[in-house]
Each structure stands twice: as C-alpha cells, then as structure tokens.
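Suppose a colleague, Dr. K., hands you the sequence of a protein chain of 236 amino acids and asks what its three-dimensional shape might be. Before reaching for any lab equipment, you can write down a predicted structure in token form. Begin with the sequence itself:
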Amino acid sequence: MTLLPGSAPRAAETPQCYIDNSWWCPPYWSDRQELLTDALVQHIWITIASVALGLVLAFPLALLARRFDRLETLVVGGTTIIYTIPSLALFSLLLPATGLSANTVIIGLALYSLTILVRSLLVGLRGVSDDVRESAVGNGYGMSRLLFTIELPLALPVIMAGLRVATVSTVALVTVGSIVSYGGLGNLLLQAVGNQFKAQILAASVLCVLLAIVLDLLLVVVQRMVTPWTRTGASV
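The predicted structure, expressed as tokens, is then:
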C-alpha cells in the first residue's frame, strides 16, 4: 500500500509536506520505512543475481571469441544486438518460459550486461603479454592452468572495470522490471509517477543512486584486494 499525498499517516496530525505534496518530506522516510526497505532489498538481489549470471554467460563467450576469430564478430555483434532490444520486447519474449517472476528480469538484465562483460573479458585477456604466455608455456603450463593462474589474474583490472560499469548500469535497469512487478525501487517509482507522489519519487531515486555508488565502491575495494600488485605499482 502506497501512502498518497494528503492521506493520514500514523501520527495524529498530517505533516504539512504531505498536504503540499513536497519533494522533500522527512516523515515519508519513517512512515514508509518498511516499504522502502523491501524495495531496496529486492533491488539489490536482482542486481547481484543479474550481474552474476551475466558474468557466467560472458566468460565462455569471451573465450570462444578469443579462440576463434570468426566467432568474435558473431559474439560481440550478437551481444550488442541484444542490448538494443527494448526491455518491454525482451521481457515479452522471456515471459512464455519464465512467467511473471523475478527470473524474467534477472535473465533479461543478464543478457543486457553481456555487451559490457564480454568486451571487458576480451580486452583484458588480450592485454596479457605474449612473452608472459610463452614463458608460462615453456615452464610446463597447460591451457587451463595458464588461463586461471596467469591470464585471468593479469586481466583482472580490466575485467573489474567492466564489471563495475555493468553493475552500475544494471542498478538503473532493474527499475524497468517494474513492468512485471519485479523492479525493486522501480516499483515505487512506477506507483508514484502515476499519482505524482513527489516524496516517493525522490526517495526511490535517491536510494537508487546511493545503491549504485555503494556497489561501485565495494567493487573498487574488491579490485584492490584481488590485485595488490596494481597498488604497489601505483605507489612506486
């Protein structure tokens, strides 16, 4: 249930900001704390699930594109085409298989993230020096060991940069999931825009921006933890 402008909150007296339908209305944040929290939690887990699925799909696609030159155009071009499909059309294509569920949004957003993640994986892996690869092969490294112990660690800075972009863009795109009732903070935005409830529009928008910033900062911390040699190089 959404608290509309002018409707009585729990307090005995209606705050003036409800009556005026003000953008800045502190009582709204306390009156609708549970509603905001539920929407934020849904937004977070849909974002994380979408990016994680996108990364799982992007990894083998990037390896195929790197291994077979003829497939690169197909993979990169295909992920770009998917990104240009309007969300309403993409969700409609998924509905027969996923129904009106969070899976529709997660799969759709994962497909959207591929255009960023596949490219970052490709660029990162191709940025590894041929001399490094040759040295590793000369020391008896097989293809799998070379990939997971040499190439991926060295490619991590570029991969993490792409992951950050994909995550921030997914935070914004989750709101589109409101068309199937799984849009996190987008559900509140859709409700509020319909009745011009300004306090709710502002609250949902602010939380969406803050979430994007927090997730981006967390990924920066993770990147610094898993690539300590980049910190050493920067400080020299």
